[in-house]
Amino acid sequence: MAPRASWKGYLKLSLVSCPVAMFPATTASERISFNTLNRDTGNRLKQLMVDSVTEDVVEREDRVRGYEFAKGNYVTVEDEDLDKVQLESSHTIDITEFVPESEIDTVFLDGTHYLAPDDKVGEEAFAVIREAMKKKKVVGLGKLILNRRERIVALSPRGKGILMTNVHYKYEVREDDAYFDDIGDVKISEEMLDLAEHIIDKKKGKFDPERFEDRYENALIEMLRAKQQGVEITAPKQERPSNVVNLMDALRRSIESEKGAKAGKDEPARRPAEKSKAHTAKGAAAKTTKKSVAQKPARKRASG
Amino acid sequence: MAPSSSWKGYLKLSLVTCAVAMAPAITTRDKTRFNMLNRHTGNRLSMRMIDSVTEEIVERDDQVKGYEHAKGQYTQVEEEDFDAIALESKHTIEMTEFVDEDDLDTLYLGDSHYLMPDDEVAIEAFAVIREAMRSTKVAGVARVTVNKRERWVAVRPRGKGILLTTMRYPYEVRDERQVFDRIGDEKPDAKAVEAMEEIIDQMSGHWDTSWFNDRYEQALGKVLKAKQSGKTIKAAAPEKAKGESNVVNLMDTLRKAIEAEKRSKPAAKKKPSRSKRTAA
Fold first, then answer.
1. Cβ of A54 and B51 within 8 Å?
2. Which long-range contacts (CB under 8 A, 24 or more apart) does A135-139 make?
């Protein structure tokens, strides 16, 4: 079943435009969520807003936004005030420039959406924009107004579609100088570097997110299942490491130990010892079905 | 002085470990925030939780998390239950695998954090790990437990420091085929693509964050200033959306676009600014 578009509008590049539909590329819907209950009655809770001084209940129409311009001093801000800062809403993703994809600083990247042409007529222009970006190995940067706010977005070709990524504003990203300038400069020996590179080579693998299992989420699912059946659960214990004392020595011993560990490549994703039988089965299923239906928690299973 | 860090622990490559501090690269500190007030008293509001049936106030001690295992039926989950499965934080970022940095799929990238050595002793090992990753052009893959939850992260060199980026799990990412499969397979006209490449060339520049401004935030700031000084502000007339018609003759439009981009000042050709600092 095709998912529902979260936004429809136009993709515009110079004089070329085509209708597009946007779909969120990420979802929290498969994640386990909880409600807050009253322990004694088992009923769901709801929020009530009260005056922090008088404790009186304050109904929606008596609430107003306040901007604290000085400690304890507020200026009230009505909806009409916010209307005054409205930016022109053009329903258009306006690509204003292109940059080489290799220059993108991923620190600035935020939420992602898939972009697809919204009708047959628009497909050709969409495909032309997509293919030209792919050939040029560039990412388009553009602007879009969503919920009054102007967002900066990065567009990159992805299969037959386009991936649109929100770009953080400059003031949302901390300059790394403040953190990195204090790091002392050290000369590192060629030999150490060689050894470290060697260890990295030994551990080199292919980027494959499908192998990454959310062990906490899976433990949560197990726990909920156990709770429903009234089983006890115990916590695992782990040890704490420390700074390396002799670096050269640690590098040499690392290489020795990496030689021993043949299975190093598959190691990060699969730790069979820490997995329950149920998840081993699921892991295998997830590999082929991609969207792991199996990750769906007890809810599905209980009702179905 | 370096800003404070949010997390301290160890960066580990095989048997080599070094003490590191981590700080978030993203901040909402400078964003305008509002509080909700009681219009009549001007007092801040606070939230109370009440029982949806009995309407009684329920204090924190009497609140419990509930998992809805079937419509309207909840399993109560206590803090001890969560503690039992909590992956005890090892305070270690152990890089168990390395991948080509170009292979990282940005679709999976989450928030970024800066990583730096936490003491003098750690600097050398930190530098060795960082430089070895840089020369081999790889990103380290590791698991980190923060707030009981385990995330997987990508670790990459950045200047004198290291960038750590959280990654999304596959179940948090939608299958793109649901969206892209219905797009037609027709190859676009080669001439049209060529023309588009020419337009792209004319609009090409370098990564430059100086124009990444939040115009809404700036306009909001003006409104708030004016409110404080009691001025009235006119509503900005939202610009009319300009002709967004479909392209009728694509090739024709492309030709016109090339001409148009030639005439227009190459706004995009900004100074090749401080681009990303992988090369430091």
1. no
2. A135/B193, A135/B197, A136/A98, A136/B197, A136/B200, A136/B201, A136/B204, A137/A100, A137/A101, A137/A102, A138/A98, A138/A99, A138/A100, A138/A101, A138/B200, A138/B204, A139/A98, A139/A99, A139/A100, A139/A101, A139/A104
Distance CA A47, CA B166 (A): 32
Selected for mutation to probe chain A from B30, B82, B100, B128 (highest A CB count within 10 Å) is: B128
Percent pLDDT > 90 in chain B is: 60
Cα three-residue angle B208-A26-A290, rounded to 5 degrees: 120
B229 touching A (Cβ < 8 Å): no
| CATH for A7-28+86-170, options being 3.60.15.10, 1.10.10.10, 1.10.530.10, 2.40.290.10 | 2.40.290.10
Domain boundaries, given as residue ranges, for chain B = 7-26+86-172, 187-205+256-264
Strand (E) or helix (H) holding A192: helix A190-202
Coil, strand or helix at A198: helix
Q: Is there a contact between A53 and B169 if contact means CB atoms under 8 Å apart?
A: no
> Closest-CA residue in chain B for A260?
B14
A155 contacts in chain B (CB < 8 Å): none
Residues in chain B with CB shorter than 8 Å from the CB of A156 are: 106
* Residue of B171, B184, B275 lying closest to A30 (CB–CB): B171
Tell me the pLDDT tens digit for each residue of B141-178. 999 987 778 899 999 999 999 999 999 999 999 999 99
Residues of chain A with CATH 2.40.290.10: 7-28+86-170
For residue A291, pLDDT over 60 is answered with no
ipTM of the complex: 0.86
Contacts of B235 in chain A (CB under 8 A): 83-84, 86
B236 interfaces chain A, CB cutoff of 8 Å: yes
Cα-based distances in Å from A214 to A210, A269, B140, B204: 11, 9, 18, 40
Q: Do A85 and B148 touch (CB under 8 A)?
A: no
Find, in chain A, the residue whose alpha carbon is nearest to that of B102.
Answer: A102
Name which of A90, A186, A198, A234 to mutate to probe chain B: the one with the most chain B Cβ atoms within 10 A of its Cβ. A186
Query: CB neighbours (10 Å) of residue B100?
Result: 14
Q: For A75-134, what is each residue's pLDDT tens digit? A: 999 988 888 887 776 799 999 999 999 999 999 999 999 999 998 889 999 999 999 999
Chain A residues touching residue B30 (CB < 8 angstroms)? 171-172
Would you tell me which CATH number, out of the four given (3.40.50.300, 3.20.20.80, 2.40.290.10, 3.10.20.30), belongs to the domain B7-26+86-172?
A: 2.40.290.10
